[in-house]
Every structure is written in structure tokens, then in C-alpha cells.
Amino acid sequence: MSLPEEPIPLYGAEYKTDPYPLYTAMRDKCPVHRVGFPSGVNAWLVTGYDAAHATLNDRRLGKNHRLGNDGWRALASIMPEPQHSQLQVHLLHQDPPKHTAMRKLVLDAFAPRRVESLRPRFQEIAGTLVTEFPADGPLDLVTLFAAKFPFLVLAETIGLSPALAKDFRREWGKVVAPVGPKDPRRPEYERLLHELQTYITDVVADNRETGGDGLLAGLVTAHTQGALSKEELDSMIFQLLVAGQEPVTNQITTMLVALLRHPSQLARLRAAPELLPQAVEELLRYDSAFELTTWRFLAEDDGLHGRHVPAGDSIIVSLCAANRDPGQFPNPDELDFDRSPNPHLAFGHGIHFCPGAALARAELQIALGTLLARLPRFRLAVPDADLKWVPAVLGRGVSSLPVTTD
């Protein structure tokens, strides 16, 4: 594949369906490329494993949006005020020492030991969802399971009341992919954003009134004690509700699609469920739902893996491209449940390593294990080519996954 001199577009149906040929061509040429997105935003994309690992640990790079230059902010910071100032100061947009202090507030809730103690409850949730599947006709595993299970688990983990959990609408997650001020979809985008902010206000009020020892109540207490500003509190709840749901939903779908495309591996996993932990790690590597990281910036003009990058230009890392680098993973395009070691970057690396990684791993193991056990003969109900991949900028997944079970 030849690469253009202009910014390489990272969008479109062909790219979203299978980005890996493009990533291979980019990796083979050099580690860093200029890329473009539908909003007109350009960025520097890091592709190879070694370059990605180094970039994720590069202390020169900051995440705070104030580091972005005027050109980047004009195109990327298009969430309207006051929502932008009130919802965009969460962990993903912070640097030490503020990032360190905010991260400490969430770590206990997602600690591996606590996640393991909640496994029986998560298994109960998964089992109930499968029991409620209709008896006849194709099943859409997104609508019936993948879009529900992660949020129910998240609500249990962070202490979201059942009444508020019932009122959450998945479409609010679309606000992480904002549309420009002149886009005809802008009014709908702003409506969803206002609704989500109202919901966050209700979450704060509920936890202030009822208290408790959950993560949400702890964040509200941290605000009351002065450890978090009102904007930081709302932003962290915003991040929990959106980042704790959609990436896991998408990862369930990418894993199921990979298994359906590899029937021998599907049969092996069904016959040997004890392979689930290592299978999940390989499926995370093979097709990560968190395809690209969020923005990073250099405070001053500097070099990045052989390329000169101006201060304030956005830098992103392709986790998917890094996870298919043959320099790190032999036969990277093969799905191999015996791969060891498997140091994939699906959850990032460094100080911004996903704090919910242990929870996500448990969810994915339970989701796959439950579906394989309860749907012993499921297969695609539509041609593979008809699967619709979500047009998200940073993530991968399919919007529906119809299967038959006869």
C-alpha cells in the first residue's frame, strides 16, 4: 500500500472495517505519520510497538488541553461552553501532580482484589441478561447483552443507585465524538450533552443526600472537602459513565467477531473455558476496542522518533497498530491463545494506564464465558461483510451483531 504525502485519513468505512493493512504500511515506512480526522483535525500518529511504548512513557508529553496550540484548539475543542470547561478536566486531560491526586481517588474502587470479590455479582448480572434473551429469531448480541452488561457492572462497582442506573441512556456516550458548530447534527449533539450534564447533576445530588461508601459518594466527599473542584467532580463522573461503558461494549463485540471468524479457536475455547483469561488477553491484542489514545502534546518544538513535531500539535498512539507489530509479536495477524508472553498495549501504558483494567478483564472473561456456555451453537445471522463498524474516531466495534443459535 502506497502512502500519500498529505495527512493520511483515519476515517471512512474501509478504514473502520479493517485498519490493519494501513497500519502495516505505516509501520513499515516509519513510526510516526501525519494523519487527519473528519473534523479537520490533524495529528501525529505513532504506530510501531517500541515507539508506542516509549511515547506512552515520554515525560515530555502532556495531556492537558492547555498545551494544545491555537490551530488544534480551534478544531478539536468544539464542545460548547459551559460544558467544555465543566466536563473536560477529568483524568485523561490531566498531568502530574493533579493527575496523580485525582487518580488516587478511583484506584481502590477498581483494585484487583475488590473486582474479584464482586465477580459473583457480575456473573449473576450476565446470567440474568442471557436468561432474558427471546426464545425465537436472531439475537442482536449488542442490543441484548454488550450494550447492557458493562453499564450494569459499572453501576454496581461505582455505587450508582438502581434508579439512576435505570435512567442512563447509552446514546449520551456519543458526546465524546463531538460534531462541529456548522454540522447539521450539532443541535442533536448539544441536546444530548445538556441531558448528560443534567444527569450528572442528579448523580451528585443523590450521592450528597444518601452518602454511602461507593466511589461516587467518595468523589462527592472529596469535592466537599476541597480536594476536587466542581468541574473536576463533574468531569470525573462524566469519564466514569462514558469510558466505563462504551469501550467494554465495543471490546465484547470485537472479541465475538474475532471468534466467529476463527471457528476452530471458538470451538477450543468453548471446550476448555479455563483458557478464558489467556484468550481474553490475546483477543485484546488482536483487535483492541480502544484503537487510538487521546491527545498528547509537546510543550516545545522537539523530535519524536525521527520526526520534528511543533509544540502544541496533537500526538496520538495507535494501540491497534502497536499490538500487531511483528517486531514484538511473531505472526501478529494470527489469533493464538497460546501466545506467551503477551505484553499488549490494549489498556495503554505508563501513568495513564487504564485504572479500570482489572474490571474490564473480569467483565470480558465473564461475558465471553457466559455467552459461550449459554449459546453453544451461535453463528452470524448476516454475511460478515454486512457488519457495520462504528464510525468512532478512537474506538473499534460493531453497532449490531445478529446471531442465530439453532
From TrEMBL:
Gene3D superfamilies registered for this protein in UniProt: Cytochrome P450 (1.10.630.10)
Family indicated by similarity: Belongs to the cytochrome P450 family.
Superkingdom of this protein's organism: Bacteria
Keyword field: Heme, Iron, Metal-binding, Monooxygenase, Oxidoreductase
CDD domains attached to this UniProt entry: CYP107-like
Stated name of the protein: Cytochrome P450
Keyword match Plastid: no
UniProt function note: Involved in the coupling of aromatic side chains of the heptapeptide of vancomycin.
InterPro entries linked: Cyt_P450 (IPR001128), Cyt_P450_B (IPR002397), Cyt_P450_CS (IPR017972), Cyt_P450_sf (IPR036396)
